[in-house]
Amino acid sequence: MVNLRTNLRQRLRAPSAFPSFPSLPSSLRTNEASEPTLSPGLHTYRIDLYGGQRRVHLRVDPDGSGVLFRDVTDVIHLNATAAGIAYLALEGLSQERARRQMQRTYGKSAQLDADLASIYELVAAMTDPGYDCPTCALPELPRADLFSTPVHAPYKVDLAITYGCNNECPHCYNEPTHYPMASLSKEHWF
């Protein structure tokens, strides 16, 4: 089996014997095609829990920086390098494969190894169903005051269908005295 793979690799890398047929692109001749590539946008990952689920979101901005959310209760701002590493971890790449991929871009360095270990530990904490507060479990994370980091889009949006509630929770922001407007009737909805 190894000989067949080796022979196939050699044939794919060799110049084409027929000039009218183009050779395969380099991304098809190596493992690069199977490596995940980060693109701007929202990347969502479900974590199944006993009796429910949790979501981890990685929102990547066009400049490559990102924000990592867990159920939009824990928020971590990432520079472009950290966002790239977090994406590889969330996509399930081993730390060694991520190291090789990042070394192609940044070269070898002790800082890269430290960053990989730190971000992989962070992603493990964010995706571990046992952690109630994963950012509390990682005290070495630098902290920023709430709302001190500029953002390009809101973290989340809530749509209140009605402010009517009969639970009467003492801690609730949804107290009837705060929002004296009545709920819409069915006729107004339809």
Q: Determine the structural class based on helices, strands and strand pairing.
A: alpha+beta
Total helices: the number is 6
Shape: elongated
Q: Residue-averaged pLDDT, rounded?
A: 76
Kindly report how far apart the N and C termini lie.
66 Å
Domain module count: 2
Q: Stretches where pLDDT falls below 50 for ≥5 residues?
A: 1-33
| Rg over CA atoms | 24 Å
Q: How do the helices and strands follow one another from N- to C-terminus?
A: HHEEEEHHHH
Spatial ordering of strands, largest sheet: 1-2-3-4
State the helicity in percent bands.
Answer: 25-40%
Strand content range: 5-15%
Give a quick account of the main beta sheet: strands, pairing sense, barrel closure: 4 strands, antiparallel
- What is the total tally of β strands? 4
Give an overview of the whole structure:
- With 190 residues, the chain is α+β, with helices and mostly antiparallel strands.
- It has two domains: 31 residues, no CATH class; 108 residues, no CATH class.
- It contains six helices and four strands.
- It has a four-stranded antiparallel sheet with strand order 1-2-3-4.
- Helix 4 packs across helix 5.
- It is elongated.
- The N terminus is likely disordered.
Keywords:
32% helix, 190 residues, alpha+beta, 4-stranded antiparallel sheet
Task: Give a quick precis of the structure.
The protein has 190 residues and is an alpha+beta fold. It has 6 helices and 4 strands, in the order H-H-E-E-E-E-H-H-H-H.
SSE arrangement:
Elements: H1 2-13, H2 26-29, E1 41-49, E2 52-60, E3 66-70, E4 74-78, H3 80-90, H4 95-106, H5 110-127, H6 186-189
Antiparallel strand pairs: 1-2, 2-3, 3-4
Helix pairs in contact: 3-5, 4-5
